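Lay summary. Proteins are chains of building blocks that fold into shapes, and those shapes determine what they do. In this project we predict the shape from the chain. Here is one chain we studied, written as its sequence of building blocks.
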Amino acid sequence: MNDVLGIINLHENEKLLKEITRNRPLAAVPFGGRFRLIDFVLSNMVNSGMQHVGIVAKSKYRALMDHIRSGKEWDLARKRNGLFILPPPDHVHYSNSIYKGDLENFHNHLDSIKKSQQRYVLIAGSHTICNIDYNDAFQFHLNKKADITIMYKKELPDKEKSFSMATVLNVDEEGRVIDMEVKADKTDCGNICMEIFFIAKELLVKIVEDCVARGEFDFIKEGIIKNLTRYKVFGYGYNGYMAKINSIQAYYRANMSLLNPEVWIELFNKMGPIYTKVKDTPPTTYRENASVKNSMIANGCVIEGTVENSILFRNVIVRKGAHIKNSILMQKCEIWPDVMLENVICDKDVKITQGKRLIGDPNYVMVIEKGMVV
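And here is the predicted shape, written in a compact code that computers can read:
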């Protein structure tokens, strides 16, 4: 796929994730013990053979820059092509400014897109978690002579699994998309759009220029849905594991699913490795009274208490007598003695002082924001 330019579009709905995206973009949210959400789409692109990847940033992207740095971990620190950042317009940085949509950002960086040597573009977001080789979908795009190919996952009805703000596709027998609907309410079945698109570079430039000229700035609603009858839009079905991180509950559920060995193997080993920023921290220390069951513990932790069905990121400290159950603790959290946490998400640098009991509901987890002391 050397002829495909990768664009990671960070125009993502963060309204239902504001507790963990207040100071960072969704792409930089920690996931699975030692990863960030953007690691998955970046790794998928690299594992598929793509060598030129751009990130269309929206706002608050300092944490993202600190994580990806030069792109070395993904083999994208190159003299030619490699990784590049497309920052948001200057006015987006001001609190009273109005962000019109992702096509505004695309339009501001059309010169960079036009200068790329690749003839095709793969556009994907960071909020779709999967481990996929894009080559089959790209070959499908070429074979169908499609103008646009949209990847989707067919979901069967599931009371415990739903997608907020999901885009649902209606596909005919030949695979052509005949209708698309953006649903604001929860959707638990149907052809869920993965928001991964293949498109020729020239057509992308045309769509961006035409939409912006008409005052339209939403790529999915105005760039694709309004053009379903104008262009040949096909859907490519994906059968592997997928999670969409578009709410706190979805984030919690996706992390907890990693405790299932089958999900973990498919997400991290089946198609290719998931790369991330390397940090040289020592192995986790388990003290005499430590008890750990069915949990993922990253390196650098110190465990003196009980950890059950939980995910702990790097450098977490769990003191003697503390009990962590069905919870997610991000980097450098410190849990003091005799604390009880259940169904809780603790963001980075959270401290829970001695004897506190914090118990959330499995369907409405409690979130402790970054740096708080309870």
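What the prediction tells us: Residues 4-270 form a domain with the Spore Coat Polysaccharide Biosynthesis Protein SpsA; Chain A fold (CATH 3.90.550.10).
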